[in-house]
């Protein structure tokens, strides 16, 4: 056998693309002058010969390492399999360091977490010795090894330092190859090339001292008051400073932030610029230290909120021309529920809504920062819902910077009891978000992680997560004794120095500062704090306790023109029925839509869907942008909208709202993910940030709003009185009892009525298409004014196509939204009316159907009856109701008729309001389903029996029926 026949393929053939090109370049240098290349590389070329040509892709046989025969000759050249295996095993070790190095990283400041088995990171696991590694050229196992690293041992040592010391990197779950390579380069080479300057290090120490002293000063000056201190995760503040600097430098004009209460006061004062004196004043003037967290008067305002829930705004200059506005969102104690609010803020700040079509987002113009708690990040489902927005068309924002302020505890619950994952951050892996674990006691590493996060966001427009591992120096709040539940931890903590002390020692070791200079920094900070407190105490005599401003809660009555000339409506209607040439609409849908062509002519009728489309179009023509989102909002759950059409041949889409010549603003319509809380929160945030936009969230079914109850309770209905946060958000909640069971009948009208107070919302349940048209236009007209309020609509289901709901075109071109409607054909002979029925929504249509009107008129046999539809439930239309009751002097009984059970629906809200307005001796009665724990029956035939009974009892004179 000849030597040539024993030749194996060259290991150079394992390389391709840029890596192969690099080897070829090194070989050319080797041919010119062997001393011009690293000794290890030179040795490889001498052993293996030239690499194959990258351009030709040829397989070139080269001389392998010599294997000496037993007689000492080397005439036969063969590949040494053991050497190849060493290379392969060294490559596996590199891969393990990159993938699992985070398991051995030193980023737990208290050493609380037992280290897992990390033998897979050791050369000995692969039976690799130092000599073995030294014999391998670094470039064979680390393609981008710098010139200072020549062999495998140096490469492994360097990568081990990178991946298992200050940082824990998790990038292996990222699917995109270019992202993984970029992240790897940043870790292995890029971060080391960006050390902090001496000036930056001293400024960082000053910031840490400020953060620490602020907390200790509050603790000493306001004994026993809660502040939910940042202590243990102090480095969060300089991290946020760095994010602000980075994204402002990249051109962001808005930075939107969300966080829970821990550390919030420190962030407010040091990042948002809220003065020490303002913070101290809120502590100093607290009326009762012993009251609960929601104590009245803690903050100045209408009813206000506790100081550690409040948000703030600040404008900062970056350079001479760019001004960046920082906003910290208000947030209640439902921790992570602020996340989608901030995401909505951010997208609203990015969207250009000034032109027809979809709004155009400039992702560079605004950035979101979310600070999470470790227990909440893993525990609250709203986190996963919000992370899912990352690449969704109507919700993405070009990347959110996430920071887990990880203090290893949830109140008194330890990590082992609060999550099933190894890391608090593991949820983010499912959304392909890069993760860096870093110690809160290593400020420079934290800053380096922030810089990487900002660069990644700038380059790839995606989220990034930093898990900053720290601790909680006090209990859940400063009055709580943590040693009852974590005694060993807090015994250890008493001996653990604060981060400013740790970092100052490092700077002193580097010779950047001496003890006298550090002490001077501390004294300067204390002097500022003391001066602010002295100022507050000096102003104490002139201070007046804020009053609750009930008067400011009422909106002023104002005439709003919502009618649109018929000529304009006809022109718009024609445009809405134009589609691009060659666009093939589903034949059945095309026939349905084409029926709208003549509905605005005399004798025509405008149904619910057409009324909505005309309202949207006229609002756009007025220059008001619209955002509509929900799980099926393009088509609508009940297929009445179809505002985005699909070509049956190629599935391309088209919306006539986007090509409407009359439109002067954008129209964004998005089918949302199957998540109510986060989507409603996002839309609320979008509307708060862009109050001039008509933002509409539509539930698939009204009772799906159950899943968003925190957003409704904490933000939509209470945000105005707690934080002066104005919103004109519209909620469309399909509601109606039609035999579809307990889960698809009720939008829980009673819940919204319970939450209605201080003129905080508008709640309606309408019965005509024209009413819907005028309502939408009225809501759009009040946006961005003091009159703006969230609008809660009990939207119809079966009524959408009920002919009784369709309206004459003149009702759109004339009139306005009516708070109450009286049943046509009834009540003309006022002195004969003995029963007055009040009702709302679908119930009114069911009663109308039972009257069997002819030409819109009831038979004389109904002279004893009149029916009134309460179209707006809140604010209650008391004047209209009083006038109607006064018109019928002989009324003996007033009924409230509803389809919901007695303990649900509007009865408990309506009863005292009606009873207060009837004359003495007039009976007020309820007609409807009895009290129930479930909203409706699941059997259709039983539903029909119940509904028939309600109608029958309501329309039968008292003398003829025994009332149950």
Automatic annotation (TrEMBL):
Its cofactor is thiamine diphosphate. GO terms for cellular component: cytosol; oxoglutarate dehydrogenase complex. Residues 606-802 form the Transketolase-like pyrimidine-binding domain. CDD domains: TPP_E1_OGDC_like. Keywords: Glycolysis, Oxidoreductase, Thiamine pyrophosphate. It catalyses: N(6)-[(R)-lipoyl]-L-lysyl-[protein] + 2-oxoglutarate + H(+) = N(6)-[(R)-S(8)-succinyldihydrolipoyl]-L-lysyl-[protein] + CO2. Gene3D superfamilies: 3.40.50.12470, 3.40.50.970, Multifunctional 2-oxoglutarate metabolism enzyme, C-terminal domain, TPP helical domain. InterPro entries: 2-oxogl_dehyd_N (IPR032106), 2oxoglutarate_DH_E1 (IPR011603), 2oxoglutarate_DH_E1_bac (IPR023784), DH_E1 (IPR001017), KGD_C_sf (IPR042179), ODO-1/KGD_C (IPR031717), THDP-binding (IPR029061), Transketolase-like_Pyr-bd (IPR005475). It holds the Pfam family Transket_pyr. GO terms for biological process: glycolytic process; tricarboxylic acid cycle. Its EC number is 1.2.4.2. It comes from the Bacteria. One of its GO terms (molecular function) is oxoglutarate dehydrogenase (succinyl-transferring) activity. E1 component of the 2-oxoglutarate dehydrogenase (OGDH) complex which catalyzes the decarboxylation of 2-oxoglutarate, the first step in the conversion of 2-oxoglutarate to succinyl-CoA and CO(2). Belongs to the alpha-ketoglutarate dehydrogenase family. Homodimer. Part of the 2-oxoglutarate dehydrogenase (OGDH) complex composed of E1 (2-oxoglutarate dehydrogenase), E2 (dihydrolipoamide succinyltransferase) and E3 (dihydrolipoamide dehydrogenase); the complex contains multiple copies of the three enzymatic components (E1, E2 and E3). NCBIfam families: 2oxo_dh_E1, PRK09404.1, PRK12270.1. PANTHER family: 2-OXOADIPATE DEHYDROGENASE COMPLEX COMPONENT E1, 2-OXOGLUTARATE DEHYDROGENASE. This is 2-oxoglutarate dehydrogenase E1 component. The lineage of its organism: Bacteria, Bacillati, Bacillota, Bacilli, Bacillales.
